[in-house]
Design goal:
The chain is an alpha/beta fold and 268 residues long. Helix content is 41%, strand content 16%. It has one domain: Rossmann fold (3-Layer(aba) Sandwich), CATH 3.40.50.300. A hairpin with a 2-residue loop joins β3 and β4. Bound molecules: adenosine-5'-diphosphate and magnesium ion (MG).
């Protein structure tokens, strides 16, 4: 099952991706977490120590690896022939960071092409890796991404089984989420969820939802919880969030809904 976590910056995508990854791993699933943000920080949220996390080179910036796999030397610019079908099936194994035995992270970095349309070798490698992962029959893949599904485009976006669009309980944030969800629908992602995060008043959040979403987009509320900010500022991962906290329980309920889809649609 391939899950895309989408939403505008700061709404809580990384926090929810990391919590979901830990919760599903604790339930016994094999999880591959991918960070495709241009400023990747899923590693920290998953519990990689700050200094160590700073050392990680995203796949889409790993020129050395790209040269090795695509046959192009960095900086050679236009006209260089390089392989668009590099070997990528061992990358998760070789470059994945083991968070716990059944939870692995690969920092992919931004996969968006530059405005000039240049497809540099490292980016080509990162995209080939994503395609491989999204086509694989492996357990659960969770992708923490910048903004919506559009960065993946047709071909890649269609491979997701679930899109979780995260928003804050404000009118503006929900309007943006509605747009991102529209894109997800256009890209044929079959299961789309809205998660309203940082909720302090669930009645008000539900009323706002009803105002913005006249259709039946399923939604799920996740409480605002000081513990998230505390753990963040201590430089700790979400594995330090107590299991009896409201945020943990809310994301655990979300995990159950996702597993429900998995069982119903028999997606692996
Ligand atoms: N449920 C929550 N309650 C309180 N603070 C939260 C919650 N979820 C996220 N945050 C805080 O919001 C900020 C942004 O979260 P983050 O997961 O990094 O967002 P994104 O990945 O969407 O940019 C962080 O400081 C985080 O601690
Ligand atoms: Mg993030």
């Amino acid at each position: 099952m391939k899950i895309l976590i989408a939403g505008k910056g700061g709404v809580g995508k990384t926090t929810i991706s990391a919590l979901l990854a830990h919760i599903l791993a604790d339930k016994g699933y094999n999880i591959l977490a991918l960070d495709t943000d241009s400023v990747p920080n899923l590693a920290q949220s998953l519990g990689v120590p700050f200094e160590e996390a700073l050392e990680i080179v995203p796949l889409s910036r790993n020129e050395k690896l790209a040269e090795e796999r695509t046959g192009a030397r960095p900086g050679e610019g236009w006209g260089v022939l390089f392989s668009l079908t590099p070997k990528v099936d061992d990358l998760a194994e070789q470059y994945g960071i083991a968070i716990k035995p059944n939870l692995k992270l690969v920092v992919v970095g931004s996969i968006e092409q530059s405005k000039e349309g240049c497809l540099c070798p490292a980016l080509a490698l990162a995209r080939a890796f994503l395609m491989h992962v999204l086509l694989s029959e492996k357990d659960i893949v969770i992708v923490d991404s910048e903004a919506g599904a559009e960065v993946f485009g047709r071909g890649l976006a269609e491979k997701f089984d679930v899109m979780i669009c995260v928003a804050e309980p404000t009118l503006k944030s929900l309007m943006i989420a509605r747009k991102l969800i529209e894109m997800g629908k256009q890209l044929n992602i079959p299961n789309i969820f809205l998660v309203i995060n940082k909720v302090r008043n669930s009645l008000k959040a539900s009323q706002l939802y009803a105002k913005v979403f006249s259709d039946s987009t399923p939604y799920h509320l996740v409480s605002f919880d000081e513990i998230v900010i505390f753990v963040d500022n201590e430089g700790k991962g979400v594995d330090f969030i107590p299991k009896n906290s409201s945020v943990y329980r809310d994301v655990e309920a979300l995990a159950k809904k996702i597993l429900g889809i998995k069982k119903r649609s028999k997606v692996l």
